[in-house]
Amino acid sequence: MFKTFLQLLYPKLCFACQEPLFSSEEFICTTCRIELSRIKLVENTPNWVRAKFDGLIDFEHANAFFHFMPGSRVQQLMHQIKYKGASDLGIFLGVWAGSALKKSHFYDEVTCLVAIPLHPKRLQERGYNQAEVIAKGLANALSIPLYTQVLKRISQSNSLIGLNRAARYEELENVFEVTDAAKIRGSHVLIIDDTLTTGATFLAAAQKIRAAGATKVSFFALAALK
C-alpha cells in the first residue's frame, strides 16, 4: 500500500517521453517501445550502417538497433545513458537489442564482445562506461562473454565535433591499445559502442583488435546516425 502511495506521489517516468509508467512497464512505456525508430536487422543485406565501413576494413557484420535523429526520443534515451547516470537503462536496452540480435542469427559466429573503452579520467568522472553497460546487456541476452579488460584507451582525443570521418580516424588512430591479446587471438570479436556516427571510433578500435590476432570483427551500436 505504501509503495503504491509513493508511486502516486513520485511516479516513475518513461526515459524516452517522460510520461508516467504503468506498474507493468519498466524504463520505457509501451507506446515508445512500439514507436521508437528501429533499424531492421537483416542478414547479409547491404544497408547504410554497413556502408560506413565498406572498403575501409575487412569485417563481417555491422548494424545498430535504433536510428538516431536529433531531437528524437532515441536521442533522449542516449542522453540519459551517457550523461544522466542511467546505467540500468543501458543494460535494459542492451538486453532488448541482444534479444533481437539473437533472433536474427547473423551474429551467431561471434565468440566474444568488446566495448569501446573510455579514457580512465573520463571513466572516473562519469562513474561507468556507457558502451560497457550496453554490452553487458547484450552479453546477457546473447550468452556470449564480454571482455572488459582487453581494449584500453591510452589517450584522450580532441573534440571530434565537426570533423569528417578521415579527420576523426586520424585523431583516434592511436588512442586504443590491446592489453590482453591472448583473450581475442583467433576470435570473432563483436565491437560495441553506444552511438555510431562516422564509424571512425569503431575503425580505430578494430584495427588494433585485428592486429592483436582476432580473425574476424563485427560492429554493433545501440543507435546510429544516418
Describe the model.
The protein has 226 residues and is of the alpha/beta class. The protein has helices at residues 2-9, 30-35, 73-83, 87-104, 120-126, 130-142, 165-172, 181-184, 200-211; strands at 62-68, 112-115, 151-153, 176-178, 188-196, 216-225. It folds into two domains: 1-35, no CATH class; 37-225, Rossmann fold (3-Layer(aba) Sandwich), CATH 3.40.50. The longest helix is centred in the middle third of the chain and has 18 residues, at 87-104. Residues 1-6 have low confidence and may be disordered.
Layout: helices, strands, pairs:
Elements lengths: L1 H8 L20 H6 L26 E7 L4 H11 L3 H18 L7 E4 L4 H7 L3 H13 L8 E3 L11 H8 L3 E3 L2 H4 L3 E9 L3 H12 L4 E10 L1
Parallel strand pairs: 1-6, 2-5, 5-6
Antiparallel strand pairs: 3-4
Amount of beta strand? 15-25%
Q: Tell me, what is the CATH class of the largest domain?
A: Alpha Beta
Q: How would you classify the helix and strand content by structural class?
A: alpha/beta
Give the radius of gyration.
Answer: 18 Å
Total beta-strand segments: 6
What share of the residues lie within helices? 25-40%
Order of helices and strands: HHEHHEHHEHEHEHE
Task: Write out key terms for the chains shown.
226 residues; alpha/beta; Rossmann fold; 4-stranded parallel beta sheet; two-stranded antiparallel ribbon; 9 helices; 6 strands; globular
